[in-house]
Amino acid sequence: MSRLLKLIGRPIINCLNKPAVRHKYLPKIQELIQYSRKEAMLSACLEYVHWAEVKGDYLEFGMWKGGSMIAAYHLSKRFESLSDMKFYGFDSFQGIPPLNVNKSEAQAFPPGIFSASLLEVRKNLVHADVDMSRVELISGWYSDTLNHETEEELGLRAAAIVNVDCDVYESTVSVLTFVEPYLVDGSIIIFDDWYCFANREELGEQKAFNEWLERNPRLKATPYKEFGWDGKAFIINRLSTEESDSKDIVMTRTIDGKINFWNYGAERLYGWRKEEALGKVSHNLLRTEFPEPLEKIDAALLQNGKWEGKLVHAARDGSRIVVESRWVLDDPKAHSGKVVEINTPLNE
Fold first, then answer.
1. Residues 196-216: what's their mean pLDDT?
2. pLDDT class for 334, splitting at 50, 70, 90?
3. CATH no. for 249-345
4. Is there a contact between 329 and 212 (Cβ–Cβ < 8 Å)?
5. What pTM was estimated for this model as a whole?
6. CA-to-CA distance for 142 and 137, rounded, in angstroms?
7. 129 alpha carbon, distance to own chain's centre
8. Three-state SS sequence of the chain
9. CA-to-CA distance for 335 and 301, rounded, in angstroms?
10. Which of 179, 184, 148 minimizes the C-alpha distance to 164?
């Protein structure tokens, strides 16, 4: 028998050692006997949230035919601690929407690409033995569905894993704004197309994520794993007020200046406690001196989604403080009116 196996096996091995055969067929054989890049990433992330005891659900944005959710559901069954995890899938089920912000993204992802109907996706999940009582599929363009009404209707708890597979900047902006309240300490965000657009940080998911982190200075993103040629995952931690960078003075306010967040660094630099600052108009409280008319600065903020420049502030004791100030509109697409202002003192 062993001689027979050698006689049969040797020609097969010799054949597979030929470069033209090896490099064509071995990757296909490997796909059959090991996890795909996405499955390997999902397996690692689910194992992480199990051992790190990160409580929450699985949220996926951009489902195509449902393959990632099928994998996530079955891989989660290895861990008893994830037995109550729910699976939420958000998709237009009409493919990529028409894109208006960047021409190169619009050329790479024409409207309707990666389209699969809600019925097709639901059938795929059922056929793959996914327990549909643990699944919610939310159909519609993100501009219509990622809102407060959806939050109330779904009763979302917390997000342990957020799988972002919506490819383009505009969609990713909406997704990150929506999920921020549901991220807990240790949540994972997976970007399936992180290195799309030749790793250019001014495009796609990278641009949206970098801007989102700038708008949320109390969130820390730690690179976790990379997968395939294009994917990357991050662990998100929420910093306490004291852990936030004390040299960066952070406040959030309405577009007309009313303060609704005032960090520990602001208390230390300006002298007003949080309770004293909240609700006040920042420009009046700090007696701000602007390099140009405020109306012009606000117009630039609304047009570009951000503004940077030097300001002069007055502390509680009357001392003058020069700062490098960065203003970022919370959601440039929505023009929601919430402004994140980060001030770095220059004369300490």
1. 88
2. very low
3. 3.30.450.20
4. no
5. 0.68
6. 13
7. 29
8. CHHHHHHHHHHHHHHHCCHHHHHHHHHHHHHHHCCCHHHHHHHHHHHHHHHCCCCCEEEEECCCCCHHHHHHHHHHCCCHHHCCCCEEEEECCCCCCCCCCCHHHHHHCCCCCCCCCHHHHHHHHHHCCCCHHHEEEEECCHHHHCCHHHHHHHCCCCEEEEEECCCCHHHHHHHHHHHHHHEEEEEEEEECCCCCHHHCCCCHHHHHHHHHHHHCCCEEEEEEEEECCCEEEEEEEECCCCCCCCCCEEEEEECCCEEEEECHHHHHHHCCCHHHHCCCEHHHHCCCECCCCHHHHHHHHHHHCEEEEEEEEECCCCCEEEEEEEEEECCCCCCCCEEEEEEEECCC
9. 10
10. 179
The half-sphere exposure of 120 on its side-chain side, counting CA atoms within 13 A, is 13
The residues facing 128 across adjacent strands are none
- Superfamily of domain covering 35-238: Vaccinia Virus protein VP39 (3.40.50.150)
What confidence tier does 335 reach under pLDDT thresholds 50, 70, 90? Answer: very low
Residue 205: HSE in the Cβ half-sphere, 13 Å Cα cutoff? 23
The domain spans of the chain are 2-32, 35-238, 249-345
**Rounded to 5°, angle at Cα 159 from 153 and 162:** 105
Nearest alpha carbon to residue 294 among 238, 242, 265, 256:
256
Q: pLDDT of 239-286, one tens digit each?
A: 765 555 445 677 888 888 899 888 877 888 899 888 889 999 999 999
Contacting residues for 196 by C-beta, under 8 A, at least 6 apart = 108, 167, 203, 204, 205, 230
Residue 250 pairs in a beta bridge with: 342
Structure confidence by residue, pLDDT tens digits, 113-165: 888 999 999 999 999 999 999 999 999 999 899 988 898 899 888 999 999 99
Burial class (CB in 10 A: 0-12, 13-18, 19+), 5: exposed
